[in-house]
Fold this sequence. Notes:
The chain is α/β, with parallel strands linked by helices. It has 12 helices and 9 strands. 43% of the residues lie in helices and 12% in strands.
Amino acid sequence: MDHIELDDGDARAVLTAVTGPGHAAIGDLIRAHGAPDVLALGLTGGLSGRPAAQVAAGLARTGISSADDVHRLAERLQATAKEHRARLLTPDDEAWPRSLSELHAHPSTANWGEPWCLWVQGVDASHHRPRSAVVGNDWPSTWAKQFTRDLTARLSEHGVTVVCSARLGVAAEAAAEAIAHRRTVNAVVAGGFGQTSQGVDPHLIEQIAAHGAVYASLPPHTPASAANAGYRDALLAAMSGPIAAIEVPSGSAKRPLFTTAKALDRAVYSAGHPYLITKRVGNAALESEGALAISDPAVMADAIAGIETPTDQ
Length: 313
């Protein structure tokens, strides 16, 4: 077996780079053998089964055939992380978001599990505080923008940390309002730093990192994909407590954010436009799946903060 002289974090980063993040079965291999040995066994064919085949295929696809190749890739990943002022987190780090471990308990969510590592910009000390994901349309109505600002202002008063995707629209409104109140903001992005998905404002990422933390499940300079956007949504659901869904697009109920939220038993509060049908369709579907409709941002914020038990409005 080739000897891989990497620490566990760097080996996890290499595995993420060659296979993509969060496959629950590969996570089981890492827990059983350790990330360096999974890489070594992947090079020599010393493991059997589908997860091992995924590792071997990822190594072959990226042109890695020796321990020296693995070490060179690890060095490149370290260099790109430094370039983007990002640090590598693993589940053993104190700053690791502990609620992500719930994903491993529910691998049925598209066979995703807890990430093996994350790249993070900023410093987040808010993991002991309540969190709420604020999500919605990239092109919200004026009503939705105001609802988001009012909701986030009230959440800030309650000391709730906002979690978002850093995309344009509702997510950007929530992040900006929380920052204006000098509150911590967290974001999870699709793609690696420097190659995040379309619709993400790089300036907003910088602002969020200055007031909290931005997490990426792919190494810097790795383009976003549809699969990684889905995994980003699963991470958002896992990092959040209750979820505020404001004027969400049609079809949202079947997307990973809300299917994962359902699997993890996260409460979802829904606010669709009061009269524009095209801005209500997505929320109506969520509500048919059990989301609670709340038309008052103050009532929604109080429900998220656990101050009162809301009733359907």
